[in-house]
Specification:
In chain A, 69% of the residues lie in helices and 1% in strands. Chain A has 192 residues and is an all-alpha fold. The chains are: A mainly alpha (192), B mainly alpha (79).
């Protein structure tokens, strides 16, 4: 059976019967969204790799323990685990994730980007740098919503639940983030 | 006249999270209100500015996860 056409729920079911290929498919399906979101939060490639790995180890352990109850909502569940691990990390360090910007350190130069060719890479390098600058300069609570909505593709309802705010607050933060980005683009006369 | 949408409706509309009825209402409002349409287009432009290729974890990281899964699989269900 081709596992890549199965739903997340079906893949989880098959994985729990011992089909390791189903886990491989689940990870392949969601890894870029999860990893990009974690990376944008922690802003460090090595740390993002660690948090990503810890996230999926927790996913594997929880699935095997039979405690996973969120059928049909696999990605939000995974992202909640990843997000909480990011928060735990910053709590341990006792510093906020966006106190400093990544000026002088281009995290995007360190990334593995899938499915690119040389010509695409040149264009994407410029775009990534601009996107990074935009996101880095947003207030933390706005940056958080942007990352979770735009890159993790969580709904505003899911983001609200994950970050313990109302949906209206999450929506308002996104709206202000988009407005602020527009101002930055205009002030810096950026072409994206 | 009471507006059938809020500012936040525009954001939900932008990200495809409005109900069918709300989508119609927002679309109608955008068609009828030039200033609202301008505001929406600015939001849309900002959202589009965020588009970039997603980053991937290193293949070694993924391989380590799959190895972890295989090594911790219950013996009776391992294929």
């Amino acid at each position: 059976m081709q596992v890549d056409v199965l739903s997340d729920k079906d893949l989880i079911g098959q994985y729990l019967t011992g089909d390791e290929a189903s886990l491989e498919c689940l990870i392949a399906r969601h890894k870029d969204k999860v990893f990009t979101s974690i990376l944008f939060i922690v802003k460090d490639q090595a740390l993002a790799e660690d948090v990503f790995q810890d996230t999926f180890i927790k996913v594997i352990d929880t699935l095997r323990s039979g405690k996973y109850k969120e059928e049909g909502k696999f990605l939000p569940w995974v992202m909640r685990i990843g997000y909480n691990l990011c928060i735990d990390h910053f709590r341990r360090l006792k510093r906020a994730p966006t106190v400093t910007t990544s000026e002088g350190f281009d995290v995007f130069n360190l990334l593995d980007f899938a499915d690119g060719n040389a010509e695409d890479d040149v264009i994407m390098d410029q775009t990534r740098t601009k996107v990074r600058n935009l996101i880095d300069h947003l207030p933390e609570e706005q940056r958080e919503v942007v990352i979770l909505r735009h890159y993790s593709e969580l709904s505003f309802k899911e983001i609200a639940e994950m970050t313990n705010v109302s949906i209206n607050t999450a929506l308002g933060r996104m709206r202000y983030a988009l407005i602020n980005m527009r101002k930055m683009i205009a002030e810096k006369n950026m072409t994206l | 006249m009471q507006q059938p949408y809020t500012q936040d409706s525009l954001v939900r509309f932008l990200y495809g999270e409005t109900s069918a009825a709300e989508t119609d209402a927002v679309q109608h409002a955008l068609d009828a209100d030039f200033e609202l349409r301008e505001r929406f287009e600015l939001l849309m432009a900002s959202s589009e500015a965020l588009n970039c290729r997603l980053a991937s974890p290193k293949s070694r990281t993924v391989a380590d996860l799959l190895r972890y899964s295989r090594s911790t699989a219950p013996l009776e269900t391992t294929r």
